[in-house]
Structure formats: C-alpha cells, structure tokens
C-alpha cells in the first residue's frame, strides 16, 4: 500500500504508553474541576426554608444533602460530647430519688423488668394520686444533661449524668415529672430537688419512673422492651452503691451547690 511504509516503523505500544502517561491524568484533572464547578453552582431545590415553614432537618447530613422526606432525625444518635463525659461529677454516695435515705414512705409498684418494664415505678405509700407533687431528689452528685417533654407517654423528663468511683458513667432518668426544677448544664448535689412527682398530664396515676442507664445517650427511648438494653436495676443498684453502712443515715450536703446558679423552674409541657 501507498502509506504502509510509514506505519511499519510506528510503535503503537509506545504511543499508548505516552497517552496514559500524559493525557489520561490531564483528562482526570479537567473532569474533576468540571465536576467541582457544577456542584458549586447547581441550583438547590426548595426545601420549604424560604416559604416561612419549618421542615425537618435543614442541615446537611455529613457531606450529603438528602431529600427532605429523608431528613428525619433519629434521637438514638443523640449522644453526649466527649467534654460532657469527662467532666461528669463523681458520685460516691447514693440515695433513693424519693422518700427518706432508706426509701422510707415509698414502695416500688412495678420493679425492673417486671412485664418488660425498663425502670422502677416508685410511689408514695398513699397510693393513687396522693404523691402528686411530692419532691424528687437527685440520687447523687451529677450534672443535668437533659430536660424536656420527649413524648406524651413520658411527660416531663430529667436526666442526670454521674461518674462512678471506678470511672464508669451512669445516667439517672426521672420520668413523668409534674415540674422540673433544674436546667441543662446545672451541676446538682445528692439530695437536691430536681422536680416533683407527676402523672404525665393525667395519663397515669402519679408516680416516678426511675431508670439507671449505662449508655451516654440523650435519647429517652422506650420504657418497655424484651431485654434490659442498657438499663440497670435501679432499686438494687442504689443499695449496692449506697457508699455507707445500712445503719448510718447520711443527709444531703449543706451549703451552696457547686457552680451554683439562680434556680430555674422549667415547665416544658407542650
């Protein structure tokens, strides 16, 4: 052929090697720049933010911007920050959340894991709604990490964080409160009044739903389950951790609480 003599000395493999060495990286660079420019200037979908209405989860989820219908926040992923965990007050003495130092004038109407119950339902001895408004105390030195009305089944809830003498963290959970007398971030002493016994706005007869939890979470979760999950038997744990002989009473400390602030009563009922 006319041009065959020109191709006889052409090294095609060498040409392909040169292409991969120079042109392929250039192509990848140009494509990456074009993609970055397109992502930065592409129009954003209207998520209702400009319409004056609130929509769930306007913030990005990591680097993603999922559809609005996917932006429901799962409270199970609400956990304590590292700084909150390392600054938890150490608790060396424990008392029951109601009654006397030995839980006198109270009884446990539904103990831990009875009929799948994840806590202890503590009542005053009068029964019915006779203990409505009775004081609820902090079981030990701790810091308030949650107050609010997470669901109608819970009513007002307060959660405290404590550090055990062996370094483990534990949360004390107080549900169905009629009134909350502490605020998030407040440091409390054992025996400080954190609220009053309630009935979740009439959903139950008045009582305190008390739990001890080992997970550093802010999720109130459910009060019933087929297993213990991260809960501990509250009544028996407090006896074990009491920190003094059974025949010795130990009234709450006197004087100003650490980092004392003006008292703030919170009614978070919707």
Layout: helices, strands, pairs:
Blueprint: H1 4-7, H2 12-41, H3 82-86, E1 106-110, E2 120-124, E3 135-137, E4 142-148, E5 156-163, E6 169-180, E7 187-188, E8 193-197, E9 208-213, E10 231-232, H4 234-240
Antiparallel strand pairs: 1-2, 2-9, 3-8, 4-5, 4-7, 5-6, 6-8, 6-9, 9-10
Task: Name the descriptors.
single chain; 270 residues; Glucose Permease (Domain IIA); 2 domains; 10-stranded antiparallel β-sheet; disordered C terminus
Structure description:
The chain has 270 residues and is an alpha+beta fold. The protein has two domains: 10-41; 77-240, Distorted Sandwich (Glucose Permease (Domain IIA)). 17% of the residues lie in helices and 20% in strands. The protein is built from four helices and ten strands. Strands 1, 2, 3, 4, 5, 6, 7, 8, 9 and 10 form a ten-stranded antiparallel beta sheet that branches. Strand 5 (156-163) and strand 6 (169-180) form a beta hairpin. Mean pLDDT is 80; it is low at 46-64 and 260-268.
């Amino acid at each position: 052929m006319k041009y065959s003599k020109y191709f006889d000395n052409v090294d095609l493999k060498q040409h392909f090697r040169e292409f991969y060495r120079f042109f392929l990286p250039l192509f990848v660079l140009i494509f990456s720049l074009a993609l970055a420019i397109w992502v930065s200037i592409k129009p954003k979908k209207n998520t209702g933010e400009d319409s004056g209405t609130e929509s769930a989860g306007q913030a990005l989820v990591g680097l993603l911007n999922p559809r609005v219908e996917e932006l429901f926040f799962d409270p199970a992923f609400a956990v304590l920050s590292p700084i909150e965990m390392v600054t938890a007050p150490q608790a060396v003495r424990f008392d029951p959340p109601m009654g006397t130092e030995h839980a006198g004038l109270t009884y446990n109407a539904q103990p831990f894991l009875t009929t799948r119950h994840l806590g202890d339902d503590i009542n005053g001895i009068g029964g019915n709604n006779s203990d409505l408004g009775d004081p609820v105390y902090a079981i030990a030195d701790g810091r308030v990490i949650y107050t609010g009305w997470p669901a109608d089944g819970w009513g007002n809830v307060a959660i405290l964080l404590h550090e055990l003498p062996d370094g483990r963290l534990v949360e004390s959970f107080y549900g169905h409160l009629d009134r909350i007398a502490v605020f998030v971030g407040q440091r409390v002493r054992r025996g400080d009044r954190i609220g009053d016994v309630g009935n979740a706005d009439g959903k139950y007869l008045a009582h305190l739903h008390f739990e001890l939890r080992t997970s550093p979470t802010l999720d109130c979760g459910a009060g019933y389950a087929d297993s213990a999950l991260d809960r501990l038997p509250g009544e028996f744990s407090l006896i074990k951790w009491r920190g003094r002989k059974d025949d010795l009473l130990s009234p709450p400390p006197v004087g100003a609480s650490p980092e004392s602030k003006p008292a703030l009563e919170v009614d978070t009922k919707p």
